[in-house]
Design brief:
Layout lengths: L2 E2 L10 H13 L9 H21 L7 E4 L2 H13 L7 E5 L4 H12 L3 E5 L9 H7 L4 E5 L13 H11 L2 E5 L11 H4 L3 E5 L10 E5 L25 H36 L5 E3 L10 E6 L12 H10 L2 E2 L15 H5 L10 E5 L6 H18 L2 H4 L1
Length: 390
Amino acid sequence: MQIYLDNSATTKPRPEAIALAQTVLQQQWGNPSSLHNWGQRAATVIETARLQVASLLNARDPESIVFTSGGTEANNLAILGVARQYSTPQHLIISSVEHSAINEPAKLLEKWGWQITRLPVNQYGRVNPLDLQASLQKNTVLVSIIYGQSEVGTLQPIERLAKITRDHGSLFHTDAVQVAGRLPIDVERLGVDLLSLSSHKIYGIQGAGALYIRRGIQLVPLLGGGGQEKNIRSGTQALPAIAALGIAAELAAAEMSVEISRLQRLRDRLFDLLADYPCLEITGDRLYRLPHHVSLILSDRFAAKAKDVTGKTIVRQLNMAGIGISAGSACHSGKLNPSPILLAMGYDAAAAKRGIRLTLGKDTTEADIDWTAMVLKQVICRLMPPLVCC
C-alpha cells in the first residue's frame, strides 16, 4: 500500500495539466515573442493561462500576473524587485516563520545594510497585528508575511496585516504558495500589493509560478534580457509549464468549495485518531489552519527516549511502510538542524528536530487516513517505551 502525504512539498500533476503540456509541446511550441502564426499560437497559450491565474486570485487586471519559474523566484522578485529601487538601505519587515525563499533575500539585504525586522509569533505560529503596527517606521518600504506556513500549517491574518501596512503607506507582499488553489484568494479584498504562488503546489507541473503585482506597483527586474512579461521577467516563457499552471488554477477554482470541506474532514479525522496518543502533540494553530495540513511533534514530556528520535527517524520508518510524509518543510527536511519555524514558536532545539508534517491531497482517502494513523502509532510504539505511549 502506497500513501503519499507530502502534498505541501509537491503535488502529483493532474491528468489535465499533463495532457495540456503535451499538446503545447506538440502543437503550440512556438516562441511567444515571435510575430508569425507559430509564435502567436504560443502567445495565446500564455495569455489564456494569465486569465486563468488572474481568475483564481480575483485579480481584475490579467496583466497583473507575471509568470516566473516558481514560488522561489516570485518571492525573490517581490523582495528584491522592491528593494533595488532604492539607492540607500531601507527597512523591511518579515515574520519569524517565513519560508527560506523570503529569508534568504532578506539576509542578502541585511548584508547590503538594510534593517530587517522579524516579527515574533505566538506558540501557534501566528503574528500579532499589533506587533506589525509597532514595528513600522518611516523608512519601511515593504512588509512580507507568509499566508499559510508550510511546516505547521498556520494561516496569518493577511487582510488585517495588509491594511495596517497600506495605511502606513508601505507595500505588502504575501507568500501564498501553500494557500493558492487550496483556499479562496481575493487580492482585492485582501488588499495585498504583491502575492506569490507556484504551479506544482496546485497539481500543475514543476517549473512555473506567478507573482501578482497590483497595478501601479513598480519592480526592478532581476533578469536583463528580451523584456518578456512586460519587461519584469525576461526570458522565453516555459510554455508547457505555464499552460499547466493555467489549467490547474482553473480547475482548482472550480473544485475548491467541495475540496476544502473534504480535506478539512480528513485532516480533522487524522487529528482525532491521534488525539489519544500523548507522545504526539499538534503544532501550529488548530483553528487558523490550512485545510490539508497536519503537523505534529514527538514530545519528551513522557519519556527521555524521545530526545533520541528525530522527525527524520519517523519519516524513514513510515517510508518503509509505504507512506510518504516529511520532517517539516521539504526545503529543510534533509537537514538535521532544528527547525527555525519551531524555534520561533518557542520550542527548544531538541524538540525542534522532532517535528513531522503530513499533508493531504486530491487522492487522499479516508482509508489512507485510518491506515496512516495506525502505522504511525505502531512506529511510535517501537521508538518509545510501550508503557508510556501505547
